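Title: Request for sanity check on NAD(P)-dependent dehydrogenase, short-chain alcohol dehydrogenase family prediction

Description:
We are preparing a figure and want to confirm that the structure record we downloaded matches what your pipeline produces today. Could someone re-run it with the sequence below and paste the raw structure tokens into this thread? We only need the token string, no images.
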Amino acid sequence: MARSLSGRVALITGAARGIGLAIATRLAEAGAHAIIHDRDAAAATAASADLRARGLAASSLIADLAEASAPSAMAAELKGSGAEPDILVLCASVETLETWDAVSESAMAAQTEINLHATLRLLQAFLPGMLARGFGRVIAIGSVQETRPNPTHFYYAATKIAQTNMILNLARTTQAPDVTFNILKPGAVLTDRNRAVLAQPEREEQVRARIPLGRLGKPEDCAGLALLICLPEGSYINGAEIAVDGGMRL
């Protein structure tokens, strides 16, 4: 693969596994220095070590985005190491399955803190540097739940569509020639988070029946689109909501 992103630094939050790791891997393969953020220190360290063992540029960054000070501390650490990100992939999220009449205060607080508050704090920490340097790519990982929510995702879906509104607002109002903002919306992707749900009796069959392609997605299905957005060939993609769901939203 041509190393089209050589010299770029990509910060991917929640990237120790799943979609975040798949995107980090693809960006690293294209030449970027992939910074794998996670609150799971062991998993993030192992993931970045695996990439380095393949001759790719990668490092880990450990922080708990539930802490209000985390994004500013992350920015200070990366600036000190000379690795300020040109690419920010907002993948970390909290997803609690509760119906509208059972949403708990703790679940509301956790999902709001990570899915919304941390998004804004990360943008405030890293977007100014992108604007000053004249290049930036912000990619938020949304969800098919935004357009076709399940009853068990009542509050989660609301936080994700609010996050999308933030990104679209910036796409319309920032007006910097080479700083873009986009949303990828995965559907039923086979990640660690989804495996437990899909393992329930008949659950996987029910999910497959809602997908026109008739199969589950893989984390890697999101990585190619993320790469395209970051490449020169994707520089005119701005404010896009791109579904990666096999048609599940239809």
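Thanks, this matches our download. The beta strands are 9-12, 33-38, 58-62, 87-90, 136-141, 179-186, 241-244.
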